[in-house]
Amino acid sequence: MRLLFVEDDADIADAVRGNLERSGFAVDLAYDLAEAIAATESQKYDLVLLDLGLPDGDGLALVHRLRRRRDPVPILVLTARDAVSDRVSGLESGADDYLVKPFAHAELVARIRALLRRPAQHLGDRITVGRLAYDPGTGTFAVDGQPFELPRRERALLEALVRRAGWVVQRGTLEDALWGFAEEIESNTLESHVSRLRRRLAQADAGVEIRTFRGLGYMLRAIGG
Ligand code: CA
User: Fold this and answer.
1) What is the mean pLDDT of residues 180-201?
2) Position 122 in a domain
3) How many A from CA of 52 to the centre of ligand 1?
4) How far is the CA of 58 from the centre of ligand 1 (A)?
5) Do residue 84 and residue 178 come from a single domain?
6) Is 6 helix (H, G, I), strand (E, B) or coil?
7) Does the pLDDT of residue 119 top 90, yes or no?
8) Among 20, 33, 34, 200, whose Cα sits 20 to 30 Å from the Cα of 69?
9) End residue of a domain, out of 83, 117, 151
10) What domain count does the chain have?
């Protein structure tokens, strides 16, 4: 497995690369956006680890560039900024996951392995779960090929769930998706949005269910899948 690590802080870059190599990954380093773009155009990577604050631009520019080219490479964003709006804009731009600095090496490896295990159709291209299809390029849903329209909050929730279909999505991640709309989140708000979303999915006969993992979060999966 060959990873590209985009990080301008040489000390962090060397330390993380050393740890990743000891965990069995081959790691190329890029110290700025220009190097990262050149690297992704000359070499096929299994995953990109991306720092957002780079000397010659915002790391999200690389995410936009890769997704415009329909490159499905999994992208894990590493960021010192823990502002919710950064995380939300990163997800919308097509990154697959986030880790806020500082992070434990074991956590980084676990996230990388999880992304590498995800089936190819979850990465960049259309995602299909049951009869529900999601196009990450347009952010639209369809059931059996018919457009499936949702109010924006439920759409944001379903988007967060479908991008990690088959995995438990943590409450915090889902609340971030709602927070993107800059409203106070009451403790029961997530539950009420999830139950409305469940009703809509059932009415549309989308062939999916949202399972509750008490205290952890929710998982979208195909019914009987
Ligand atoms: Ca940086």
Assistant:
1) 78
2) no
3) 6
4) 9
5) no
6) strand
7) no
8) 20
9) 117
10) 2
